[in-house]
């Protein structure tokens, strides 16, 4: 445990600053790859907006938005290979979609039709976890089984800042470290667990610093900075795939909307606080950078927006469709 | 507090009358079934068993003594 | 002169407020209970009124919350903790079963734990998975836990006051689907003791036995049955442990017929216990087997299917129909 | 020609060995199961024989063990995990109830979990607190869990093989007080399916219903009763979930009298369930109420008092005496 | 989090080396105080031996010996004030006795008479915890309640290396740090959790390093070195009492005997390993130091031994006595 390692666990890595300028010493993917990232960010944002609208229309029961966290959502999916696994939570609908699962299938849960609407095995995406931190252990199990079978699968396990307080977070990190399981623990520190602010969750120098207590590398990264996220997460995935065991990555980000539509964030935080985070928008800086780099013009943006609109229309149609539910399912697959 | 009903049913009520909700003739289920099969009305019987429980014999003798029938 | 109307959430809030105000040792804590006032607003305003030392948010860890409550109770406090939803109390299961329930007995009463564990529980709110479990059997089966499940807002107030006053631990199950229904609550009516069931409706023909969220359903079934000429009584247990055999058996002995109604899956449940005890204690009075109308032995279903799962008026009346009326008067 | 004698620990060990040898996806892990062979030596020799990839020790965390098992099962393995003692499975309760039990249903069968959770359980070994809990009700009440409790060494072998072969999760309860009793076990006898009870002793007068550690006690009670002129039958459930109504009810309908015997505290227990179902299904055949002889509704007592707690021959025969023999044929 | 803090969490502090020499830069209490410590060590050792004998005679059902860990047992009790609380495990009989509870009362549990044989409140000693790590949360609760009441109570919470893997360890450390609860978490790292060696429990640089992830100070100390333990634990207690919150202290020690008499350590460790630890005996070095310092002569040793024998005789008599058990207790204090 060197001073450098400690610093990496505390000071967020950055690639692009809030004005879209490359941070000194940092590198970003070539513009074409970054345009693809931007496209995914726009999709994620559009999906968040669409789902918000569907809730207001009463077509979804509830939606925990990842607005403001889209860079995290996109990055954690994009660094994975096809055979890798993603373990998402209720807030990670956009990440699952970024991984390629049809959002309509993902929304089955929030529509109230069934619990999990996609085939986890087909997509290598676990059901969205609601009991906090419990899924992290499943992620370790999938990873350990892969290793025992000699497969080079990597598992990306997501949770929030609040979930790091649960015992299962601890047990999962420790099991992964002890078994050198190929897991990347990715904590989206969006500063709140419903109403409870980070300061009531932890007084550690960072959440990534918890890695030290498990004997694994820990990294903190600007969670609104797509290239930085892809780099840090990508390296963690590579380490895991190379047999070097797990990594804990903490993204420094912010939940722009309420916990869910059912929540009223004004009860526990000020508008000023939210306003402060708006310029740090994850789409904005990539867009500015690409614009300046000449890789994104009006025409391309227009295409990206149109494609996102198409996706949104499909989501509206799919969620709006009258899918029959079968009471017989109640009794199926119980034993 | 609500008005509580009697804790135990009256024991061997002298003149059992059919009064649902206030009195249930005491009998074990197979005796009830026997009574039903034989067409005997338990409300018309007085139990000879402990605590006034109607026994098989009570039911059987009710059949052989049709006077007890309603 | 009628008492003010309040929702069950408000009644519980009032009970907490009055308890905190009256007794310095009462503290309220859990996830989101302070600043937010709880996800159901049950603790609304308490933090502002009583401050951080009496009402506070904890890190997100249920075993931590209950474990800390044990220690605080060991040191003279009366913790009232909230588990955010039924299924999110499971991480605290070891603390509840191995410590909360047993410490008094393990220390021969030297250490007693006046802890109340409040759990918004059961379904009927269209909640997604893990938000609608009826978990009472786990607690009721565990010796050492008093388990209370109010069905009315007045009971929610009175029983919670009694639970907080109890020198020993109480699991307090709040039927979350009633949080926002209004009823008259007269908080000046003396607090009814825990352990007494109440006959909510007198009935001659059969007795429905229920608690918590199933009581209004049972009453609705009785209403309906009345229009069809059948007079059903309804007993509201109010507390599952202690169990009020006297009240329950008095009713069943009078009617000779009983149906137990509960949301939880039926196998090895509180409904099983009621059927078993009634079967044993009212044996000679039973005109028909005791029927159970419960949730099915399946995981709680998604919102669009929950009405198939929940015991409703129809299923209750179907069960009543099987009570061997052919040889009824 | 008699089969070799082995202890229940050896029978379980043989089942694990045979399963690991036959199926590459079977893995065994938990606390102290590898190098040590388990605190009861149930996994003795397996680590040496099959190596670290098949049999391994984990860090000390039960939720971790069960949670990891879920993931391994999702990725094609058949984990057989050991909880060191009954009460030490409680930290894993959330994983068991919210995931192990439900994942198959939650994913409409897309993800199935062939996990076996082995739990040395129940008392009678003079163990200190937290080492003797009968925790079956918690699992049996949870939809999605198959719950098996062998009473004989041959069943321990056969049922464990069946549990490991099951595509869905099984909680396998090993009566720890039988770990070191020897019986003949013929492992070549075909594996009996899970879900079938067995009549261990035919009896005309009344039926004792038991499972796991209570079966030998019930048999001893029947022995004793025979010397007193009463002919008691004994049904061994073998699995609690699924419950074999057919076998149980056939017996009770024949005798008209039943006593349920189980170690766990009685309230809202498996014994309650049995009494309730028998009361419902055999109603017209019952000459007497179904009696329950169970542990009391108190925490498991210290060693010097455990014989007062455990259902013994005397308490069973006392219960049998209450079965209203006065109007027996 | 400075480099020095990191070092303190990883490199064990020492006062006396294995030959009884003062470590450079270290200080020890004045000889009289150290003689008192030595007396307690002898008592603790004698108690371990006596209990072992009682098990062999069938008078105790089981005994988890703290032989080799006596310095930890003595130190954690001696740094506490009367109003402070001790939260022990099944292995900490000697620590409870060092706190002043009659060992016969403590042994009630292992004799099988009842669960907890002493009055926790009278002695400010919690019942011995068997469900691992669960008691750490109770300790936090007692501490937090004390703070709310304005009392300056400190709580000493004990657990083993294995117990640090449990979720409750994590939740307790985090709650304590967040609430600045006056708790000292004292991990006796005796290298085994029954048969499972430390390496299977954690791959962190140390167990004390876990403190970093909670934002509390962590210290590693030679667990067979009484003065070092008393210094590190004493400072932790002082910090807690001064309102500076919790500390995590890890003692580097070794379990000389089997887990309990029912265990057979030869199945998982070599005699050589045990032999290596014998010269690091916690009594030996204090004795050598005191002898050299002229503070301990044959006469005083003889007195100390005689007193320990008296204690042992009382334990034999007390445990041997035929105390009646009351079946009525089964039903007492359940509800
Ligand atoms: C075990 C458990 N306890 C409580 C909850 C209720 N709950 C749902 S989300 C949430 C806050 C989670 O915060 P965080 O982990 O930071 O994730 P975020 O919602 O901010 O993405 C809580 C308390 C739960 N789902 N699971
Ligand atoms: C929750 C729980 N799981 C398992 C056990 C069984 N058990 C008793 S002691 C022990 C090992 C503990 O090791 P450690 O924490 O290092 O303490 P030590 O015994 O070495 O002092 C185990 C696994 C338990 N008591 N509690
Ligand atoms: Mg958050
Ligand atoms: Mg836990
Ligand atoms: Mg240890």
Automatic annotation (TrEMBL), chains C, D:
Query: What InterPro entries would the database entry show?
Result: THDP-binding, Transketo_C/PFOR_II, Transketolase-like_Pyr-bd, Transketolase_C
Query: Annotated Gene Ontology MF terms?
Result: oxidoreductase activity
Q: Where does the Transketolase-like pyrimidine-binding domain start and stop, copy by copy?
A: 6-181
Carries keyword Oxidoreductase? yes
Kindly list the cofactors needed.
thiamine diphosphate
Q: Mind telling me which CDD domains this protein's record contains?
A: TPP_PYR_E1-PDHc-beta_like
Q: What class of enzyme is it?
A: oxidoreductase
Q: State which Enzyme Commission number(s) the record gives.
A: 1.2.4.-
> Which keywords does this Swiss-Prot/TrEMBL entry list?
Oxidoreductase, Thiamine pyrophosphate
The question of whether Oxidoreductase is a record keyword is answered with yes
- Would you tell me the protein name for this molecule? Alpha-ketoacid dehydrogenase subunit beta
| Species name | Lentzea rhizosphaerae
